[in-house]
Structure formats: structure tokens, C-alpha cells
Amino acid sequence: MTPDEKKPILTLRNIRKSYGPIEVLHGIDLEIYPGEVVALLGENGAGKSTVSNVISGTVLPSSGEMTWQDASYAPANPREAIDAGVGMIHQELLLLPHLSIAENIFVGRYPVKNGRIDRREMEQRAGQGLQRLGLDISPRRKVDGLATASQQLIEIAKALTLNARMLIFDEPTAALGGEETRQLFEQIHRLKAEGVGMIYISHRLEEIKQIADRIMVMRDGEKVHQFDTADLPIRTIVEAMVGRPMDQMFPPLARPDNDAVLEVNSLSSPSGQFHDISFTVRKGEIFGIAGLVGAGRTELVRAIAGADPVSTGTITLNGENITPKSPREAIDNGVVLVPEDRKLQGVILDHSISENIAYSNFESVGNAGWVSSGKVRTFSDGNIIKFGVKGRSNQNTGEMSGGNQQKVVIAKWLARNPRVVLLDEPTRGIDVGARSSIYEIIHGLAENGVAVIVVSSDLEEVLGVSNRIMVMAAGRQTGILDHAEANDVSVMELATAFG
Amino acid sequence: MTATQTLRQEKSSLREAFSFSGATGPLIGLLLLCVFLTVMTDSFLSFRNFLNILDQITVLGIMAVGMTLVILIGGIDLSVGSVMALAMMVLGYLNVEAGMPMIIAITGALLVAGLAGAISGFLITEFKVPAFIATLAMMSIARGLANMITDGSQIIGFPAWFNMSAIIRYGGFLTLTVAVMLAVFVIAILFQRYRAGGRMLYAIGGNPEVARLAGINVKRTTILVYTSCALLSGLAGILLAARLDSVQPSSGVAYELDAIAAVVIGGTSLSGGTGGIGGTIIGVLIIGVLRNGLNLLNVSPFLQAVIIGLVIVLAVAAETFKHRKS
Which of A333, A375, B2, B153 has most Cβ atoms within 10 angstroms of its Cβ? Predict the structure, then answer.
């Protein structure tokens, strides 16, 4: 299956795209061969999405040519691209939760017999699509309640029933854990064997090695590197992405004191999402929590932050019982949460940076409940500078990149000088450059004596920043590892241990 | 450098104090409407007519303030008209039928109204009943209770000073009822713009989960908002009773729609999180001026309804258009 034996199914020649006078794509060339996975890498704003949008018909190029299966190809809209056989799997899943899997797969193009929807045909064909992906679910099942990985596979099944010869994956694993990612990769290998060409966009570089055949790196709308193998040190890829040699990705390890700050004693959730969890975090320590998606990590930190209820067990801060009943109680005790879903739980997208920061700091921006707009501005400007947010205080958070949004979420809490900071997936969907500055902030917190808990599905990240790592599986803690004894093997062993 | 910065900051906070929370579009519309009516009629532009308009918008104005708070947190209150009628009937019953002093009757009317709002808020937060449904139910319940008090008939016979408070223009221009409305406006603007409690409403409307995780007590705030909205409806009912010198259980039918219209014309988004009292006041004025002007122009009430409908569509479409452009 070497490229020379085959003709490319898709070729891009000198594709340019301008918005007004500003050119955002500067002459991109790209070939995709059947049965190969090309990883498209770059920081946010490098032009990866524009390229995939041009191919999937969402954006019209300003100039340049595309060939699809030896014919000229210029999709005017996504419909034409889909009809030609180009499917796109979006990062945000576009499924209708209250409809069945089959209905979701065929929405907008239901098979019709005698003027009525032919449910049998629809379910049968959906079933075939699911089987092809090795997914053992009834097509009549509602999408609501399915695991994210399964939902992702349904999106893929949808593209496959359209006879897609090429798929574009935009951050497919952003919401998946290790096991689910493995499942997805199995299916991608299966599709490769069937000759489907794929473009794979991801920020998780360690995945690229496993799944990609070639790598194209973009920076500022230009193709800057092309590697004909994915078997490269991650460092090489990162350096190509950021365009400069990287110092160490992670800051040096935090140096904790011996005094315990936060103690969690046999904590359980009423719905059984986590059970009998006990651990201690010391002053200035970064405590990692690893595990597969669904292991109960998010629920655990949400409970510590008072966002979810606790059934039994206690949380003590400096020896004092502070088991919170509401986020307010936790916040008043200096325990704050940077939540998993930035856009739904962290910031209000159509409100400004200063408003978002003010919502958690009403005491600091006013006097006896009277909010002064001048104080709000000075306060948020101060924090914008302190945390290196690239934005103005009156700018809507929705206009900013994920990394900057995350900095706003962090800034709004750190302005309160918390004693315990819980970060749930702090760098999900954030590009490499912004990532290292978030690690810097986390490290800075620990240096200042804050007890930090980091939950992450990114193994490299937990291993890189944590002094100790607690591993969870199916709602229970399966072990706590010291930095020295923790590596991907020992963590994964515990994460998949059930017992 | 620092000097210009301070200057700019002062300028912008000055601008903020006079801004109508992004309701410049409706403000321009209001001014154009006034110019048009001044040219088209002899009687529109007069101090006397201006006072008339203020008298005519008292009930709508006060209700719309409460509705703005509810809509800001992403809710809706369909019960304001019925709650107003209930408060009026309680007022009439306590004062006229039971012969209690007015101060007790007013307190009783406000208590009953506030209770109705608290119940709606409780249903919405504790039983997760959608606001539309909870307040729809309250609309029916309050209307029924209002009718039950007198079996559907009206109550007359308030003390003479009560009606006079809506007629006598103190200082040559302010009736007591208009003064109450203006006071409500000022307090509401100060609350919404400068109190932490007011800013929290935007957070809840923007995204209740973000607000909750930010330490805002979303449930309590929501119940308080529905209670305040109902209290303001009760207050509007008391002022209406003073103006009419009577109370009847059929008062305030479809007033909730006028109140929602005023809020929406004023630029507050029905999905919550944006807008404000300043815009709502302009919305109320637009409806008031339009009704007054169309009456002066002898436009039939039926055509008036059509025109007001068109204004609502125009206002919202203009706002959406502006958003898309920016």
C-alpha cells in the first residue's frame, strides 16, 4: 500500500482563502491516498479547520483547484461534498438525543416507500452501518444516554451509509478516554483496510503516532512541514507546530510541604459514581487523578467543590470539616473548581471577560453589594495581565480561543486566592502554546502553597505535572502512585483494574 | 499616558451611566415616533399630553420592570395580569368589604401577590416545572381566586383620597401613582446596574450552571425574582385600583403580553442574559406613545393592535440584524 502504486483520491493544489484583504490560507497543497490517515496538525488558528472546511464544502476557497477521484471537485456546500463521498465528523457531536440511532443516521434523507418512511429499510441499513463499525447496539435505541465514544461512532456510521470514501475527523478523541479512544482507533484501522482516506485533526500528539501514516503541519495558514511517517518524537512535531525549539513542555515538579491541607475521607456519591474515596493533598502539592472516562473522576472533584451532593464521608481543610452543600460553601472555604466543560460550565460565552471574572468576585468589585463598573474594569484588567489572557476586558469570551477562555476561568478563581484548586481536564482542546502557559500557572499555584488537584485523561499531562497520582476505575480508587513509580503502564494497569 | 487613560475611563463610565444597556436602537425609534406625531398632530407635543402618557403607562411600566427581571434570568411570567387582578380583589375585599384600614389592605394585597410569585418560583426551582407552565398554571389559579372573592362582581367604595392620589398632580405635575412608577424605575435601574444581586441575574440568564459553579445561589435568586415580579404586579394593581376607583376580577387580562412586548421591544433577549431595565422603560414609552398618538390620530383600536404587532417584529428584527452585522 505505498502511495506510488495508487492515485490520490483527493488532491488540493494551491488552495488559498481570503476574508476581505486578509489571506488566511496561503497556497495549500495536499494529497490524500485511499486507505491512509493523514494527520493535520497545528496550533489553534493555524488554518486546519479552514482546510477541512474547504474540503467538506463549508467554506469556498478564493483560488486553487481540487481533484476528487480524477475529476475536478468544487463543492459549493456541505451537501455536494457529502454527495460526492466526503464526510466530516465534527468535534461537537450533532446528534438529536431524543431520536433513535437509525433516525439520526438518516435524518433529512429518510428512505421512503409509498409516501411513508420505510422504517424497516432504515433500521436495516443503519444496523449494517453499525455492524461495519463493530458496534453492537440496536438501531432502534435512542441516542440519549449513549457513551460519547458510541455517539462518535454513530456519526461515523452516518457518514458511511452515505458511502463516504473520505472522512475528516476534527478532534474526535477530545471527549474520549483511553479505552474509548482505542475502540475508535480499531474502527479507523478497519476503515483504512476498506480503502477510506482520512484526515485526522487532533491536539493529542501521542495519538498521532498510533493512528497516522503521514503528518502535515500547518502554521499561520501555511503548510510548514510534511513528515512521511508518524513515527517521530513528539518533541519534533511540537517544534514544527510552534516554529521554535521547545523548552521542556512541563515546568519542574512542585515541591510540596509536609502539612496536609485537604483530606478526603471515605467519600461516596449518592448515585454510586464514586465510592469510598480517601486521599490527602499537601500544601503546595499537585495531585493528579487519572482513570478512564466514566471512572468517577469528574463527579469526585465536582462533589469536593460542592457542585454535586455527597452521601457519606467527609472533606476536611486544615483539619476542619468543610464537606460542602453548595458551590458557595466550598468557595467560601477557598475550594474552587475549574470545570471540565469550559463552554457550558466555565464561562458565559456571550458575556464579556470582565463580567465573567466579576461573577465570582462580587466582594472584590464592589462595596456592600454595590458594584462599581470602574472597579470591575480595573480588577479584570489586572487579572488579564496577570494570567496572560489575550483579550480586552470588554471583549466577549465567545470570541476568544479555547486557551484564552480557560485562562479566564482560571483567572476568575485565582483572583480569590484559593487554598485548594481543582482543575478538571484543564487543557482539553487547547493548543500546545497555551497549554504550557496553563502548566506554568498550575505550577505557580503550587509554589504559592495552594493544594492543586488535576484530573486529566491525557496521561502524559498527569504524569508530567503531578507529585502523586491517584488512579480510579469504575468509581473506586485503585491506587496512589508517587511521581517516581508512575508511568503510562503502571497507571493504565490500575485504570483498568476492576475489583 | 495615565492622564489620558483615566480620562478615557471616566468618559466610558459616563457613557455607561447614560446608556440604555444597548437599547440605542429603540431610543432612536422612540424619538422618531415623537417627531412624527409632533408633525402629524397639533396636540401631541404638549406638557399636558406628556403627563397623560405617563398616567397611561403606570401599570404597564411597573409590570414590565418585574417582567424584565424574570426574562433576564431566562424565565417568563405569564401570570402577571392575573396576579394583579387577585391583588386588586384582595385590596377591595380587605378595605371595602372587611372595613380594614387602607394600609392593611395594601399590605395584604402585596403579600398575596408576593406569595403567588414565590409559589411559581418554588415550582420552577424545586419541581423543575418549566417557567412557562408554572406561570401558566398560576395565571389560571390567580384569576380563579380573584373571581371567587366576590363571585365575579366588582367592588366599589374606596375612600375618596385613594382615587385622588391618581388625579391630583402634586407640584403641578406628579400624581402619586406616577411618582410610584418613577421610584420603581430608579430603584430597579440602580439594582440591576450597580448591585451584585442585579449583576447575578445576567449570570443566571447567561448560563445557570456557570452561575451556580461561580457560587451564586441560583435557586434562591430565581424564587426572589419571581416573587419580586409578582409583588410589582400587585403594586401595579393597587395603582390601577386607585385610578379606576374600583376593582374587578376581570382586570389585567392579556397584560402579560403587553409587558413581554415592552421588554422585548426594549432589547432584552427572551433567552436571557442580555438587556436591562433602561431598554424596557423605552419599550414601555414606545407602546405608550404609540397608543396615545394613534388615539390622537383617530386610528381604530383594531388597527392599533396590528401596528403594535408590527412594531414588535420590527424592533426584534432590527436587534437581530444589528447583532449579525457586528
Answer: A333
